[in-house]
Amino acid sequence: MHDIDGYMLRVADFFNTNLGPSLIEVYKLGSLAHGGFSAIYSDIDVGLLLKCAEPPALMAEAAAAAQSLDSEYGNKLSVFWGNPDFTWGRLPVIDKLDLLDHGVPMLRDHKPVFPRPTKAQVHQALRESFERSYKPRLPELSSLVQLQANNRKPYIRTLLYPARLIYTWDNLAVDSNDRAVNYLHQVCPPGLDLKPIDMALACRQEKCAAEDVFALTPDLMRQFDATISYIAGNP
């Protein structure tokens, strides 16, 4: 973790130098902020809060340059950025929740202050994420007869996705995989098999291998249907 923290500080200093007065703050987001970071399965998420009226020039190039600051950790870096008063940037609704509730400032100890996304906005963002990020991978992952190295991360993420989605759907907040899985045990969504979800969480915690989770042969389409049914019944 010390090496990751050092890389993130270099990233923060890089954006501070390159964005100048338009930068309000750089934040740790994701599992490095709200807990449960996995060296194998987690991304390194950084949020940039800006105060300019128009998008800074060459932001994509700047994000790529930040990734190049470290050959190992740069491959995991995801940069979220924007001014919440405007519609441009890359600061989706769910990441705004994460920034408001968990963002860890790295430069100026600035607490983010902007309107919280509404229930309707959060639910719409989750539906879109569901269709864009979860559903398209199901046919491929369901058809696997063996788990290859390149499929471990998406497979474990797909198994955990219902926990994170249902937690955020009900609570209008973002939290760790641990908290989300614990919440599933409280609400017990009908038809959702919790055993492979629990084991996927254990895999993130390095208590078992992804192949051990795969050996359970969870029905990914059934998990999908149960998740859809739950959110449809809890508008």
Task: Give an overview in words.
The mean pLDDT is 95. This protein folds into 2 domains: 104 residues, Beta Polymerase, domain 2, CATH 3.30.460; 114 residues. The longest helix is centred in the last third of the chain and has 23 residues. The protein has a 4-stranded mixed beta sheet with strand order 3-2-1-4, with helices on both faces. Helix 7 packs across helix 9 and helix 7 packs parallel to helix 11. 53% of the residues lie in helices and 9% in strands. The chain is of the alpha+beta class and 235 residues long.
Please describe the structure with a list of short key phrases separated by commas or semicolons.
2 domains, alpha+beta, 4-stranded mixed β-sheet, 11 helices, 9% strand, 235 residues, Beta Polymerase, domain 2, 4 strands
Proportion of residues in extended strands:
5-15%
Largest sheet strand order: 3-2-1-4
**Shape field:** globular
In helices, the fraction of residues equals 40-55%
Pairing-aware structural class of the strands and helices?
alpha+beta
Q: Tell me the total number of β-strands.
A: 4
Radius of gyration: 18 Å
Protein topology:
Layout lengths: L1 H18 L3 E7 L1 H4 L9 E7 L8 H9 L9 E6 L10 H10 L1 E2 L13 H16 L3 H5 L6 H23 L5 H11 L6 H11 L5 H5 L5 H13 L3
Parallel strand pairs: 2-3
Antiparallel strand pairs: 1-2, 1-4
